Amino acid sequence: MACFVKGRFGPLFVFRPPRPGGSNAAGIQTSRCFFSRIETGNMNMSTLAKFPRIGLKNGLIAMAMLAGGVAVAALIAPAAAQSAPTSKQELIQAAQREGRINILESGFTDAAFLRDVENAMNAEYGINIRINGTGGPSMSQMVTRLIQEKQARQTPSTDLLYTSTRQRYLLQQAGVTDPVDWKRYDPAIQPGELTHDSSGLVLFADRVGVVYNVNSISPDMVPKTLEDLADPKYRGKLSTTPYGTGIGEAIMLFGTERVMKLVEGMRKNVIGFTGSTEFRPLITGEFPMLAFTASSAQALLEKEKGAPLDVAYPFQAYFLYSIDMMKGASNPQASRLFALFLRTPKGQEILWKHRRQDSPFISTSHLYTQVEKSRSAGEQVLLYTEADVQKFDAAFNEQVPAINKMFRTK
Fold it and tell me: Which of 374, 350, 358 shows the shortest CA–CA distance to 110?
């Protein structure tokens, strides 16, 4: 049962009684609605008399608030509603009370990774929080699911989500993410580390690259520039993705004219398509080279396991990944602490150990050193943000079919 109250200056207020016979923080009985579309100026003592269970005192308080145009949320909000912790110590205490973090997503629930984070985070803050990771839907599938849950007013199925720039932008547009005043907990956080709506922290990045089979591509054949990929020496050796990975980022750096000229030259060399992180055809030698992957880190992890792979970087573009907070999450404070921990030196160390990813904004991190080295050499560097999505994605998405057609046409 929903109840509606409208003030002179406020919007229509909707609430649902928590349970029959229950009462809220103000002590008003909420077994049934005690207002029904009462407009300011029309509420009087006879109106109150029709709802005897409110009680005269609470009824007069509510009428006075309505007369001033003030919503009665303070009277009827559930007692559980609490403001965000105002300090890191308060956040730690609130996180301990929640006691757990539930993560549902296929790309961020590796058991060894989460175990290391759990142990180190508990040691860092002197707490005992359990991190429950459940593999399942992909990042893009989780974005769709969370948007649907928001529309259905359901509790999010995950307390937090690790997202790429584009997926994060979709969540923000749908109002799924929950903004946080992060600097209240860590004043050292820089503007570039905050997502567009401050609902998350950018904690690690991955580099666009060209993955190649070292048994098929000799050291002298490794591409050093974009234009190298159009060289006839790669005829019959090049694969690409069916959705333009890397092409859009190159356009952001170098402009449409230069990159489309590159595509025109590359198309004669392309022999097939594979996913951005589907390296099996490269490991087997079916495709000697892939331009481009969105995750050089995953390719390097395969290399460390013994796969005959390596990565070249004809240009400097990085996808930024964040840990984002969900509105209505079951364990919001523990989730915030999780994100803050991953920003610490120990958190960054664990990210690099398990994922070969860390932050391009933190001076002690590996990717920060790479980015600064490129900038010092005068190279253009792209750190792909939500602003880039707004600026480039619509136009690029229109170009993808044309680019794919060019690659398929010899």
Answer: 350
